[in-house]
Amino acid sequence: MNRFRRRRAFTLVEILLSVIILGLVMAAILPLFFSVLSSYEFHQDIAWAKQRGQIAVASIQPMALAAGLGMPNRTSDLQKAFIGLDAVVPSDETKRFRQTVQLASGDVVVPNNATEGSELWLLYSVPSGCGVNFERHVPENGTVTLRRSDKEIENIDALDGSVQVGKGAFAGWLAFPGSLSPLSVSGIDTGAGVLSLASELDTTIRAFDEAHYVRGAKIGVRNGRLEVNRLDRTGDQPVVEGIYGMRCTYDPEGDRVLTVRILARGIVRRDGILTSDVDGWGDIGALDRHYRYAVVSKSWRVRN
Questions:
Q1: What is the reported pTM?
Q2: How far is Cα of residue 163 from the mean position of the Cα atoms in its chain?
């Protein structure tokens, strides 16, 4: 008697059935796998685009929040106050600031009745750390001198190296948040503690107000980058790459809300055509449609 069991092999039918079942399972799984992969690519591209847009918006925000601080609102007063500063009031009228939040397009200001532009020009103020103790009135075309020895000014040393005499550059201008006009620096001696200021408009420096540096910027999108020109002869400085559009709206006579929308692009170029319209922007025109794009928007109310 044979005590050994006979080994039973798989039949051809069983093998074929296993292959068919495996094929059916894979046919069900593969579409799900590619769907998950496609969803991951989509969200990754949008996340990169939004991150770039958020960096662009974040770079604009400090300037937007301080726009117009210590400066006049009316066009005539603004241009008179900054006489001598060519960055604000150049000989070419199409390039003059008419307000501290100025919309522009193609390096020229938009018409008076326009509320949208592709570039943003800002005049804003930055704290210096230097302050005054008493209220001082400055008449139109007048001057005022503040002396440390009379306790009229505090921490004037903070201005050392950052302020110069003359109207030709922003370094020659200061603003006070409680005043209606910026003042040009007509004299400064940090060692002796003396600061002399001049104003084209009638204004008052309020007691305990802090001196602010006056600064300007022209912000636009060029060559796929957000660039900022600080109007200090350094030219356009890149902030972030992957930016392909900017739309700004501002209504100075209405709600005084400045809204900036940034069109940003992902970092990976895909094989197929991905984008035709972008939500919040519309048709992207001649841009490379093998990338995904996203729009990041931010609004600020200009209170100054």
A1: 0.86
A2: 25
Measure the CA–CA gap between 77 and 72, rounded to whole angstroms: 6
Rg (CA), the chain: 31
In terms of residues, how long is the chain? 304
Q: How far is 56 from 221, CA to CA, in rounded Å? A: 10
Residue whose structure tokens are 């005539």: 76
| Structure confidence by residue, pLDDT tens digits, 85-117 | 999 999 999 999 999 999 999 889 999 888 899
